[in-house]
Design a protein that fits this description.
By secondary structure, the protein is mostly helical. The protein has one domain. The protein is 75% helix and 0% strand.
């Protein structure tokens, strides 16, 4: 658990740096989601969604957004050598900036739409999606097939299939609990789309599937998955899950 907290958050915890803690990624993701969901229950839909995403970015040190930006910059490069230079450049390029704006914009719009139906459904959905997105990162090395040297390989070498199964299983349990809470605490008025009460479960499943697809695509385009690619997988999973929830409600 400590290793997972150290990798996924900016909470200062002591770790020996030899373990990834992948089995606990779903649990840590759920906790991050809970912290980020609070503004959705207090503010109007759009401000609440923006604040929720801001908390999530701050709590994670914006590491995954940075990975998304670096991956986008690398994919926009004309050749492999230029792609690696772009990925390692600490400055965000045009493609990276566009990727961040589009992802955060899509996240905020989708989350605000769900919150407009029910703030509680939006909060429960965010918890499920964040847990699923972190679990998707543990599956990414296996789906990618090839892992590039660096943090990506370090993570892959310390993540077993059992770890990935535990993380995914945790995310599914979190989604089921969120779905049950929605049905008990925030029943939707009739007539309402069936997806309105199954939003968290739908979002979780879509986020997991989207994470696997994103890992496979990024790996193919980049000649293997790296640490930045894992960050991109997490961000794309969150976006896919939230967009699915917005359609469902």
């Amino acid at each position: 658990m400590t290793a997972a907290i150290a990798l996924l958050t900016r909470i200062p915890v002591r770790t020996d740096g030899t373990r990834a803690g992948a089995a606990a990624f779903g649990v840590v993701g759920a906790v991050l989601g809970l912290a980020a969901a609070a503004p959705l229950l207090v503010f109007a839909p759009l401000p609440g969604a923006v604040l929720a995403l801001a908390i999530l970015a701050v709590a994670s040190g914006a590491l995954h957004l940075d990975g998304l930006a670096d991956t986008a910059d690398a994919l926009a490069a004309p050749n492999a050598e230029a792609a690696e230079r772009a990925r390692q450049d600490p400055r965000v390029g045009a493609a990276g900036a566009v990727a961040i704006v589009l992802i955060l914009g899509a996240d905020a719009a989708a989350l605000a739409q769900v919150a407009g139906r029910s703030p509680f459904i939006a909060a429960a959905t965010l918890v499920a999606v964040v847990a699923a997105s972190r679990a998707a990162a543990t599956v990414a090395p296996f789906v990618a097939g090839s892992v590039r040297p660096g943090f990506g390989r370090w993570f892959a070498e310390r993540t077993s299939r059992l770890d990935a199964a535990a993380a995914v299983g945790t995310a599914l349990v979190v989604a089921a609990a969120a779905n049950l809470a929605v049905r008990i605490v925030a029943p939707v008025r009739v007539p309402a789309p069936v997806g309105a009460t199954f939003g968290p479960a739908v979002a979780c499943l879509v986020a997991l599937v989207a994470g696997g697809i994103a890992a496979a695509i990024v790996s193919r385009l980049r000649g293997g998955l790296d640490g930045d690619g894992c960050g991109a997988v997490i961000e794309l999973s969150v976006a896919a899950g939230l967009l699915a929830a917005s359609v469902a409600v």
